[in-house]
Each structure stands twice: as C-alpha cells, then as structure tokens.
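job 3f2a | input accepted
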Amino acid sequence: MIHPTRTDLLQLKQKADSVVNSVAILKARRHAVIRAFLDSVRPFVRSRDAIRLDYGKALAEIHLSEGHEGMAPIESLAATAPREVGVTVEECNALGVRYRDLTIHGPFVRSPAERNYGYTLTSPHLEESIHLFESIVGTMLEIAAFESKIKMLGREITRVTRTTRVLEERVLPRLRTDIRTIVESIAEREREANFRLRRFKTSRGSRGGSC
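job 3f2a | predicted structure (211 res):
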C-alpha cells in the first residue's frame, strides 16, 4: 500500500537509487564473467577440434591394423598393457563462481618400449593408433577441466542476467510508478491547500472590508 507522504517518497527514492546501483554492479559482474567464460571457451573449442581430428585418424589407423592383423591380437594387447590414469580433482573459485578443476598427472603418451609388449610384432598402423588414442585421453581430460568451469560460468551469467532483468523490467519501473504517484498526490494536496488558503484570505478580506 502506498502512503503519499514525503517520508515514503524519500524512502522510495532511496530504494530506486539502490536498485540502479545494484543493476550497475550486476552488469559489471556479468561483463567480467563473460570475459572469463570466453577465455575458457577458446581453449575448450580448440581441444574439441583436436580430439575430433585425432579420433578420426586413430580410427582410420586401427581399421587398417585390424585389416592386416585381425582383431584378436589387438584385443590381446589391450588386455596385457593396462595403465593407471592419474587425476586430482579440486575445488576452485573464479570471480566467486565455484567449480571443479582437474590436475592431470601425465604424460599419457607412452613410448613403444613403455607399453609392455613387443612392439616389433605390431604394425606401424597399430602403433600410430595407440599413440593417437593416448593423446586423446590427455586432451579429453583437459576438456573435462574446461567443461566444469565453462558450465558454472554459464550458469552464473544466466543467473546474473535474470536478476538484472527482473530489477530493470519489474522492480525499478514499479518503484518509479509509485514515486510518480506520490509526487502527483503531494502536488495535488499542495494545490488544494493553496486554493483553500487563497479562499480563506479572500473571505477574510471581504469580511474586513464590510466592517
């Protein structure tokens, strides 16, 4: 309920000023988060493109190897040459946005001598496909690190944008409407008071003249 008093008018003006300041702060934050988002997206896109190219090459090489050696030797090598993938997950903070970052303990690409099998018995196509798949593992983990950060930054951009829009399109117009209503009401009361005062003075002057 609107109370058309000067006190309420002052309070509404202070609220409107506060909302305007909040909108300015939110817009500045959104710009900062968008910059951080774009800085993270660029390497993310590059990593995805690199995986797409390497994966296509790796599939082509392993298909050639399968044609020369058959699938059984390839499956046997996969069973006899396992490895551990070292990854540490930690909580990070960027502009107040919390996300999970990955620390990758590599390298993931091994030399033929480190793969625990006689590489002289394999074809160059198989060795090349193994090399490419191991490279892809490292790149995919890098993408996972970027993806978590990008996802949380994207959510923050959406949240800040939604809050800014509510303040600009709902809260601030309503406050300004209430301010205008109170200003008009006060102005109307002042006009009525001035009119009554003039009538009073006129009436008093008329009585004084008749005496």
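job 3f2a | The longest helix spans residues 124-210.
job 3f2a | closed
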